[in-house]
Amino acid sequence: MFYEDLSPYAYWDEGDRFSDVTDGMCFVSLQPAYARLNVGWLGAGRSWSSGPAPQDFTDRLLAVLGAQEANAMLGLHACDLCATPLPDSHPWYVPRPGHLRPSAGTGEIRVPGTQGTAFAAPLLIGHYVADHGYLPPRPFIDAVFAFDPYGPWPARFPGIRFPWIPDDAVLRHVDEE
């Protein structure tokens, strides 16, 4: 799925759903009061920027990817930039030989930007940066450096790593759907 960097987010129109990464069984759904901008929705045959990322950016991005998940989907999206498809026998969550990150994903992340704006990126962004040399736009890079996914979080949502969860949000269990 390709979207231009910094274009308005349009992939999932039912709000944002943040998974509690401590147990994977709870979530918070909300209609965002913030604008969402696309970053890292790359596709084969489409142009995208490449180049060396600033020092420590990849590690910081991978920390965000390890600490947060939004809009987890039931389907699997495999990287179409890789030269060969992922064999059925290869677990999707294991990096290909010679790669640093898995080349398939099931969800997204949100990185808070300037007040009122969040960047929406697929989980595959780590693979695109680490294994394909994708260079995200500077506002996203700056936001990743400014965001501490392991910082202090409200006790109500200890496994939801995003600062703009509204006060009236409710933590639900997957069995409550």
- The whole-number mean of residue pLDDT values reads 92
Rg to the nearest angstrom? 16 Å
Biggest sheet, strands in spatial order?
Answer: 1-2-8
Low-confidence stretches: none
Q: Into which percentage range does the β-strand content fall?
A: 15-25%
Q: Count the helices. How many? A: 3
- Residue share in helix: 10-25%
Query: Which structural class best describes the helix and strand composition?
Result: alpha+beta
Total strand count, please? 8
Shape: globular
Sequence of secondary-structure elements: EEEHEEEEHHE
Distance between the termini: 27 Å
Major β-sheet annotation: 3 strands, antiparallel
Features:
3 helices; 177 residues; alpha+beta; 8 strands; 17% strand; globular; three-stranded mixed β-sheet; three-stranded antiparallel β-sheet
